[in-house]
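It would be a great kindness if you could assist me with a short task in structural biology. The matter concerns a single protein, recorded as an amino acid sequence and a row of C-alpha cells. Could you please explain, in whatever detail you think fit, how the C-alpha cells follow from the sequence? Thank you for your consideration; the sequence and its C-alpha cells are set out here:
___
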Amino acid sequence: MSSPPRLTPRTRRTFVALACAGPLLWLIVAIAQGDLGANPVERITHTTGAWTLRFLVLTLAVTPLRRATGWQGIAPYRRTLGLWTFAYALLHFATYALLDLGLDLGALGEDLRERPYIMVGFAAFTILTLLAATSNRGAVRRLGKSWRKLHLLVYAAGILGVLHFFWLVKADLREPAIYAAAVALLLGARLRGLLSARRLARG
C-alpha cells in the first residue's frame, strides 16, 4: 500500500490561510443574511476583537511550540498568523471608527482622552500596524538585528489587548482572564528562552 501524498509547503500555506479566513467568511455570510442580532455593529466589533486576540495568542505560541517540540516546519506560519492578527485588528478598529463614530476624528480624539480602554486598544493597534508594516523581507534586511528586537513588541500588544478587553467587559471577566493567562504563559516561556540563550552565549 502506497503512503498518502505529502502536502507541499504551498498547499499547507493555502490551508492555513483558508482556516484563518474562516471567521471572516462566517462574519460576511452573517452580515449578508442579517443574522447578527439586534445590534450588528456591536456584534461585529466583539467578533473581530475576539479573533484578534485569538490569532495574537496563536502567533505568540509559535516560537514556544517550536522550541518545545523541535517542529521547525511551524516557524513560517508565525508571519501568516501575525498578518491575520493585524487584519482582524484592522477590521475591529474600522468597525469602531467608521460604524460607531462615522469617521469623526474629533470624537475619536475625545474617546482617546476620556476612555482608557480606547486609548489602550489604540496603542495595541498601533503596535500591530508597525509590526505588519515591517513583516516583509525587505524590512528584515533593512533593520538587521533590530528587526527581532522590534518584533518583541508583539508581547506588549498582547498585554495591551488583554487590558483593553478587561476594561471593556467590566462584568464577566472569565473570557479576558483566559486570554490574560495565555499571554502571561507565553510571555513567561519566551522570557525563559531568552534567558537560557543568554546563559549559553556567556558559556
Q: What stands out?
A: The chain has one domain: 9-202. DSSP finds nine helices and no strands in the chain.
